[in-house]
């Protein structure tokens, strides 16, 4: 009887021991007591998950590439638009401009130069490729600029300019100078009216005067 | 008294030595433990009903463990190891619950 009691104790102790052993071994060895067919199932499901994730990676990579591409394209579009805006702003005279060009000084003590002559001079400079023109450093000449005779000088866009007129034009300096000196051209015409004309070519002319930006009242952009 | 001492000694040894499960026992040990638990719960029930017998406990314990291990072995040989061990666990679990319910009824009368 006592032997059996001891055997009972040993069996219970063995159970406790085995329980502890099994519980501890599960902590660090995940697959050691998994059956082979379970392992196969596990492997299959992992394979499927792997394929699914691979497809997902491909899709996401594609999406990312598309986004990068469109980003690049919109960057280029923004860049082009900015350049265009700069060009138009110079044309419209709403920003300052700097570059090579000529300075033409017209001393007119007898007041022989009238608005028409000044306008002719401006047109000739434009024909020679002047991109930005300013008179006496204050009157920026743009597309809608008007030139009329005033009581005490010539009115350019509402600003009165007086002799000596200093016309600064940005463009190819030598072309502008040549164009002005051409026989029958700007210099000839002005000199005939008794003015003295001095032309100076410079590497850098800075125009800070701005034209009044007035938005068109009737014309509307016709977008294609 | 002796079983309690055995329990404490077994837990102590397990915690002290932190042994690894031997490779050859790995598939069988979990099922064998469940089977042994079934025997122990049955013994507790018998204890409560004052008809516990050392000899019956020892035989049922050993035979439970051996039969459970053998069934797992057989299942592995037949290629239905996981299904059969699931079945064994379910059956032993039902028995453990039934015995536990009997003990509970006896103690709490509910």
Description:
The complex is a heterodimer of chains A (224) and B (110). With 224 residues, chain A is α+β, with helices and mostly antiparallel strands. Chain A folds into two domains: 35-92; 97-207, Protein of unknown function DUF881 (Alpha-Beta Plaits, 2-Layer Sandwich), CATH 3.30.70. Chain A has helices spanning 2-28, 36-92, 115-127, 173-181, 186-192, and strands at 97-107, 132-135, 139-141, 147-150, 153-156, 159-161, 165-170, 196-207. In chain A, α3 runs antiparallel to α5. The radius of gyration of chain A is 43 Å and the shape is rod-shaped. The mean pLDDT of chain A is 86. Chain B has one domain (23-108). In chain B, α2 (29-48) runs parallel beside α4 and α3 runs antiparallel to α4 (81-108). Chain B starts with a helix and ends with a helix. At the A-B interface, α1 of A face α1, α2 and α3 of B.
Question: What keywords describe this structure?
Answer:
heterodimer, A: 224 residues, Alpha-Beta Plaits, 2 domains, five-stranded antiparallel sheet, 5 helices, 8 strands, 21% strand, rod-shaped, B: mainly alpha, 81% helix, 0% strand
